[in-house]
Amino acid sequence: MQCRVNLPAFLFLYLYMKSFASDNYSGVHPEIMEALQRANHAHMGSYGNDVITEGAVNRFKEFFGDDIEVYFVYNGTGANTLGLRALTQSFQAIICSELAHINVDESTAPEQFTGCKLVGIPNQNGKINAQQVSEKIQRLGDPHHPQAKVISISQLTEYATAYSVNEIKALSEVAKKHNMYLHMDGARISNAAVSLNKNFKEFTRDAGVDVLSFGGTKNGMMFGEAVVFFTKEAAAFFQYIRKQGMQLHSKMRFISAQFEALLCNDLWKRNAAHANAMAQKLAAALREIPQVTITQQVDGNGVFAILPKEIIAPLQQEVFFYVWNERMNEVRLMCSFDTSEDEIQRLVKKIKALVSA
Ligand SMILES: Cc1ncc(COP(=O)(O)O)c(C=O)c1O
Questions:
Q1: Which of 307, 281, 310 is nearest to 294 (CA)?
Q2: Where in the chain is the domain with CATH 3.40.640.10?
Q3: Rounded to two decimals, what is the model's pTM?
Q4: How many angstroms separate the CA atoms of 94 and 105, rounded?
Q5: Is the dihedral of CA 86, 93, 160, 23 positive or negative?
Q6: What residues contact residue 55 under an 8 Å CB cut-off, 6+ apart?
Q7: What is the mean pLDDT of each run of 10 residues along the chain (357 residues)?
Q8: Which CATH superfamily is domain 7-27+269-355 in?
Q9: CB neighbours of 316 closer than 8 A, spacing ≥ 6?
């Protein structure tokens, strides 16, 4: 059987159909591709026993300190689910925003692997706060009640907003007070670092985070995320948990090489800064259109906006994006490392044409 790629169709998609659907609709950054090519030589130890993985782990240590544990996994769901698994027992509860990826976009993987109850609480601009969380920590010591053990937050949030250092510290204080852990889903951690103008450590480890899912895929990698433990005792069984959870890559060097490239030469920062800047440009242009209302503060690489209902479907024919909240006609427009100003102008021009038609 001969297999042929339909090249013209591919080129059309590539040249004209970049979308605002998600930062994982983008391809792979060329520097990451080159790193994959460079890693594609010779034979090397498998399952992480190789020099490339050692190098990538050292990069994480440069950012977070020597006394951390880092484990690479395939995807964000795996990083979150297994990180939470390491922190909990099955009679416990994980408190998060009702919008949290772990609560609504990871099927029931967190519940399946941890056995815990996920307690989703209302958010303000994607965030949960210390006061709300404190109110949910009830009946500790009562065997009839799920025992709160983890607070999990997303940075950026699902509304692409960023928690400040003080907001994270306040949540960490609540966690420490009740002998709980603070978990951070950092699928978009680089966008958050750029937005806050802080180094990674300042708003994670130094702010009291115990375990972090460090995202690579949404910021230019092909695949790969890292579970970073700042509280070492929580990592005690993680090598077994990762294997049991089917997230131990045998040709690990190909995740590691990507992280090495992402964390070198500020690629993480260049990519995230570009995506964030594109979101700012898009938001500024949308604010000029009276029929469009931006619903969230634009901290990172996403813009949430209410559009007139009748223009959503025709607009999606031109440039794809997701409707976030059907009831409100609120859409989510995500920018990535390869979003161009031209694409933003094209989108804005199309919106203007549709609202005035
Ligand atoms: C907040 C958040 N966490 C985690 C993930 C990672 O999910 P995946 O398992 O698709 O890599 C995503 C991806 O959409 C996300 O938006």
A1: 307
A2: 30-263
A3: 0.96
A4: 15
A5: positive
A6: 256, 260
A7: 57 63 95 98 96 98 98 98 98 98 98 98 97 97 98 98 98 98 98 98 98 98 98 96 98 98 97 98 98 98 98 94 97 97 96 95
A8: Aspartate Aminotransferase, domain 1 (3.90.1150.10)
A9: none
What is the radius of gyration, based on Cα positions, of the chain? 21
Positions of CATH 3.90.1150.10 in the chain: 7-27+269-355
Measured distance CA(50)–CA(52) in Å, rounded: 6
User: Would you call 325 helix, strand, or coil by DSSP?
Assistant: strand
Q: Of the residues 22, 77, 80, which should be mutated to test ligand 1's pocket, given the most ligand atoms within 8 Å of the CB?
A: 77
Atom of ligand 1 nearest to the CA of 154: 1
Structure tokens at 84: 């939470």
- Residue 318 DSSP SS3: helix
DSSP string of 28-62, one letter each residue: --HHHHHHHHHH-SS---STT-SHHHHHHHHHHHH
Residue 31 Cα, ligand 1 centroid: separation in angstroms?
22
pLDDT score at 18: 74
Q: What is the CATH number of domain 30-263?
A: 3.40.640.10
Residue among 24, 84, 105 whose CB has most ligand 1 atoms within 8 A, to mutate: 105
Among 145, 200, 151, smallest CA distance to 173 is for 151
Query: Which residue, by CA, sits nearest to atom 11 of ligand 1?
Result: 76
**Residue 167 burial (CB count, 10 A):** 18
Neighbour-count burial of 315, counting CB atoms closer than 10 A to its CB (0-12 exposed, 13-18 middle, 19+ buried):
buried
- The residue to mutate among 72, 98, 101, having the most atoms of ligand 1 within 8 angstroms of its beta carbon, is 101
Give φ, ψ of 84 to 5 degrees: -70, -35
Specify the DSSP class assigned to residue 155: S
75 lines ligand 1 (CB under 6 A): yes
- Residue 276 near residue 302 (C-beta atoms within 8 A): no
